Amino acid sequence: MKDEEFVLKVYGKHNLTFKAKHYDSVYLKKVAEQLISIKDTDFTHYEIHFNSEANEEMTEPNTLIHPTLD
What we know:
A 3-stranded antiparallel beta sheet has the order 2-1-3. The model has no long low-confidence stretch (mean pLDDT about 85). It is of the alpha+beta class. It contains 2 helices and 3 strands, in the order ββαβα. It is flat.
């Protein structure tokens, strides 16, 4: 079993973030380019990087939401 994975993050408008992990960075690039190429998409750009702790990165929040109660 492989221990090393790549993480894809596709970013977009309104703090939209799509995350995926895979052993093949070429596959992740294809996924990202398809998401960005969808007509009227809110996705704008992406990054792919190696992460030996990909599971932890997948579960950490990108934006912390602090609700206010009135």
